[in-house]
Design goal:
By secondary structure, the protein is α/β, with parallel strands linked by helices. It is 43% helix and 20% strand. The protein has helices at 40-58, 62-78, 80-91, 95-113, 115-118, 154-165, 180-191, 206-214, 227-239, 262-274, 292-305, 327-342, and strands at 2-4, 6-8, 11-13, 20-25, 30-36, 122-128, 131-135, 142-146, 169-173, 199-201, 218-225, 243-248, 253-256, 286-289, 346-349, 369-371.
Length: 375
């Protein structure tokens, strides 16, 4: 059994908690690895490594930090196929989606490559009688990110890319469901020239989250996840005098007007509602058509479109989407479908009985469609 270890102070680190979480292959339902779950002490070790690296990294001039980001970008692009396959094997999204996940993260790394200009302060002469005003931009110190399962490359890069480029050092606590890509990104950051301790990865559950939120040397925390946990992260972090951005509960809703280009609507809805098995933060699960005629046409066109959507294993280049991330997630979706039926909505297309030949134990669920849903 492959063990996924922490990455602390520039090297793989074996935790001593004795606690592990299973990492599944969603295509087969089999356990493919286990990830170590950190103790409070192991989180402290990562924070201390980041703190030790801070003075040297923050005093490195912005141009040199930017060169590290340029090289990191090059290395991620050079390893794109490996990273995408690793991501798909743990998350279940198809390879094309995984490459998109990585590329969207790289867009923020590209921004971080231009950080010297963004770090310039301001100076105002004569703001008042005998008063000049100037501002300086300075790093905080050790900062942390707590990231979700659905974008294990993009969201960590969104967080640590800018934080590190401006001179902070970083502790990342990724989702324990698909933790391998964040570790690989930390290895590439080291290879790109970042000193030991600039980017650390600790795996864990609530124990690790609480250790980050209460650690006196962690000055800021960024979080993406469910709304309930976002509230908890914000309240706990703020109570411990940290800057916190906590983003939770994102889903889109759509309105289809009578004059909409229905060909484009169907194309967009198929991707937005069902793409990546609906596990994107900005998925679009609810659509309100304006008027019965629009609603009838939308329903008819979607019913015709759904059979053309191919559900397959994550390595299937022709698949539109793959399995969901865990059996619990699949069962939860099936439970919501059943709840809709019980509450009186019309289940037009039922994807609960979907099974992929040869992968019957995988976490697959077919596209489903409700109509006449009441509040």
């Amino acid at each position: 059994m492959r063990d996924i270890r922490h990455f602390i102070d520039g090297a793989a680190f074996d935790g001593a908690s004795g606690r592990f979480a299973d990492v599944f292959d969603p295509n087969t339902g089999e356990v493919q690895a286990r990830v170590q779950l950190a103790t409070t002490g192991e989180v402290d070790r990562a924070v201390q490594a980041a703190q030790n690296a801070f003075d040297g990294w923050s005093s490195t001039n912005p141009q040199r930090r930017a060169r590290v980001m340029f090289e990191f970008k090059r290395l991620v692009e050079a390893n794109m196929d490996e990273l995408a396959e690793l991501l798909s094997s743990e998350h279940g999204k198809v390879i094309a989606d995984s490459k998109g996940d990585i590329q969207r993260g790289l867009e923020v790394i590209e921004f971080a490559c231009g950080i010297p200009h963004a770090l310039k302060g301001e100076y105002t002469y004569g703001a008042g009688p005998g008063i000049d005003v100037y501002s300086m931009r300075q790093p905080l110190g050790v900062v942390a990110g707590i990231t979700p399962f659905n974008f294990p490359a993009m969201i960590p890069m969104w967080m640590f890319g800018v934080a590190i480029a401006v001179g902070n050092t970083f502790v990342l606590k990724p989702s324990e469901r698909d933790p391998s890509v964040p570790v690989r990104l930390a290895e590439l950051m080291l290879e790109a020239g970042a000193p030991n301790g600039v980017l650390n990865v600790v795996h864990g559950d609530k124990t690790a989250v609480d250790a980050i939120l209460t650690h006196p040397l962690v000055h800021a925390v960024s979080f993406v996840g469910s709304s309930d946990i976002a509230h908890y992260v914000y309240q706990t972090g703020a109570a411990n005098h940290k800057r916190v951005q906590a983003m939770g509960g994102a889903k889109n809703h759509g309105i289809v007007l009578p004059d909409a280009d229905m060909d484009q609507v169907i194309k967009d809805l198929a991707g937005a509602a069902y793409g990546s098995a609906g596990e994107r933060c900005m998925a679009l699960p609810v659509v309100v058509p304006v008027g019965k005629k629009t609603a009838d046409e939308l329903r008819e066109r979607m019913v015709a479109e759904i059979p053309s959507m191919r559900v397959g294993v994550s390595t299937d280049a022709g698949a539109h989407y793959g399995p969901v991330v865990t059996a619990q997630h699949r069962d939860r979706i099936a439970g919501w479908i059943e709840k809709g039926v019980q509450e009186g909505a019309e289940l037009v297309v039922d994807g609960r009985d979907f099974s992929l030949q040869g992968h019957e134990k995988g976490y697959f669920i077919g596209p489903s469609l409700f109509d006449h849903v009441k509040p």
